[in-house]
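Q: My labmate handed me this sequence with no annotations at all. I'd like to see what the chain might look like in three dimensions before we decide whether it's worth expressing. Could you predict it?
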Amino acid sequence: MKKRVLLGIVAGVSLVTLSGCGNSQKLTCTQTQEDDGATATQEMVVEFQDNEASAFTMTMNMVAENASAEDLKTAEEMLKLSFSAFEENGMNVDVSSDDTSVTAKVSADFSQMTDEEKEQIGFTGSDNSYETIKESFESEGYTCK
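A: Here is what I predict for the chain of 145 residues:
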């Protein structure tokens, strides 16, 4: 019995060691814009497995301290409508508001999406490596680390 347990543990450790988790990285890029008393911050977090994008989360937060509750609710509804197409393409979408801000969070795990869904958001048919995506965000004014 002890021999079987020991053999099972050795086999399990060997399987984990041999298969490993691959080479994973995370890229975080942010951009902040201010206009007319409002501040919009976007954070893009892209996860990579073996230098290929495997998942992402985008968080957009708009703070407008002088906006009315009605304006913030309208902005929330507009974002929900805008991001509804993302939900149809296999992504998770959460939009909410409070007294001074509206927050939208969109995320996707590419392993859970069809090729067609990935194509709709531009994550197939091209180079989705860490460096290429980082360069793309930086060219759009994001700061990446």
